[in-house]
Amino acid sequence: MRRLSCLLSVFLLLALKAAVPAWAQQPAAPPVLNAPPVYTPSAALVSPRRLADFLQAARQNSPLLRENINQVGQNRIDSLVRARQNGVQVGGIGSALYYPSITNSQGESVLGYDNAISNGGNYAAIAQATKPILNRFQLQTDYQILASQGQVLRNTGRLSALDLRRSITDQFLTAYAAETQLTFSRSLLTQLREQDKMLRQLVNGGIFKQTQYLSFYLSVRTQEVTVEQDRLAYRRELGTLRALAGVADTALVTLEAPTPPSHRPLAGLLAPAQRQYTLDSLRLRLDRQAIDATYRPKVSAVLDAGLQSSSYLPVALAHSVGIGGGLQLTLPIFDGHQRQLQYQRIELSEQSRRGYRQFISVQRRQQYEQLEGLIRASDALLARIREQVRVADALVGAARQQLATGDVAILDYLNLVTSYRTLQFSLTQAQTEQLRSRFALDYLAEQ
Predict the structure, then answer these.
(1) 70-73 contacts at long range (C-beta below 8 A, 24 or more positions apart)
(2) Quick check: is 407 in a domain?
(3) Is the pLDDT at 3 greater than 50, yes or no?
(4) Which CATH number does the domain housing residue 367 bear?
(5) Are 303 and 283 in contact (CB under 8 A)?
(6) Is pLDDT above 80 for 27?
(7) From the CB of residue 49, how many other CB atoms can be counted at a distance below 10 Å?
(8) What range defines the domain where residue 77 resides?
(9) Whole-angstrom Cα distance, residue 403 to residue 398?
(10) Is residue 378 part of a domain?
């Protein structure tokens, strides 16, 4: 008996030593990417002014991109967990069950289980070690699924970064257009105020009537209101831009003109938007493979050691110590043809995937060609507007000189100024739309 106890102790120590890495040891730190730091502008850059600065701030502050990085790290941890699950697993089993039995005066049982079945009780303390074996196909399939999920997460991160870049760029162009309009409104107001001083002298000299000057005076006050409206519009658009980028600043700064991107061809099948459907195809193939794996026989090696007895007496327990081992087989036989039904679900998903991919391919090509056409039309329109603005600027300058001598009526001068203001606004809008089309084309070239 003492020799059996020693052998049992040695066996338990060996089993625990082999199983400790599966549940007690700290695994090596997985290569999880660190979360990006919060954006903090340097002393030289108190507030972002360039498009590149806002894009950098948005990438560093975006919780969506940070979450995607964490999800990639979780996927790597899931791979480590799956590796541990395939190792030796040790568990303890303990039971202390008593089955009472009541008999009458003749010795017949009137209450209780049949003693041949229950033996009056069950007392056990067992350590059991299990290890899956002959599961190469299942393990390989699980690893492939986890790897595919990691690729999907990384591709989703690239798409999220591109969408963020598109949102920031579009809002930056809107804010820059508002700033350009504000700059022109201020410049025009300065000119009108200079003319106002001169016209007062001409009115006092009798060259113009007081009623004519009142029209000009009203135009100056109207331009002052326009400047305030443009300032509020710029402040609103700049605040929206900073909110999208996660920049905590309220100063009204001057944005730098964005550099138009170069013309690039449409992205191919390796682009994130196209690769998404390739990864979906791989996922569906692995889903089918996972279904096949669930219908394969599963074999596990089982080894246990401890004591089991039908009596709680020390003498009985001392003689009930033992060990056991063997193989455990799980084999599916019939499940109502669920396997074929799952195959049909995967086939329907594959049909949807092919439809989406074909549609997105045609749509992206159509958008790319449409943007190319818009850019060509915008270039032609900008050339015409710039020529008209040049002519209008010359006319306003000439009229300003003649206004000083009284050769041009005040109302005619105001009409020229109004036309010049309208052309300048059209120029700002056309420039913004051209830049927006160029950046959208660049987005399609990378997406």
Answers:
(1) 70/32, 70/35, 71/153, 72/32, 72/33, 72/150, 72/153, 72/154, 72/157, 73/30, 73/31, 73/32, 73/33
(2) yes
(3) no
(4) 1.20.1600.10
(5) no
(6) no
(7) 13
(8) 31-86+135-295+332-446
(9) 9
(10) yes
Res 382 pLDDT > 60: yes
CA dist 414 and 403 (Å) reads 11
Could you tell me if 125 and 307 are in contact, meaning their C-beta atoms sit under 8 angstroms apart? yes
pTM over 0.85: no
E strand residue ranges, 267-320: 298-309
**Could you give the number of structural domains in the chain?**
1
- Distance from the Cα of residue 250 to its chain's centroid: 27
Considering the domain boundaries, does residue 442 fall inside one? yes
Residue 206 pLDDT exceeds 50: yes
174, two tokens: 């809107």
Classify residue 254: in a domain, yes or no: yes
What does the block give as tokens for 229?
Answer: 């409206």
pLDDT at 445: 86
206: left (phi over 0), alpha (psi -120 to 50) or beta: left
Report in angstroms the alpha-carbon separations of 128 from 16, 88, 121, 402: 10, 10, 21, 105
Q: What is the mean pLDDT of the chain?
A: 84
> Which of helix, strand or coil describes residue 386?
helix
- pLDDT tens digits, residue range 251-279? 889 999 999 998 888 888 788 988 999 99
264 — phi, psi (to 5°)? Answer: -125, 155
**Dist CA 223 CA 188 (whole Å):** 8
Please check whether residue 15 is in contact with residue 90, taking contact to mean a CB–CB distance below 8 angstroms. yes
- 49 pLDDT above the threshold of 80: yes
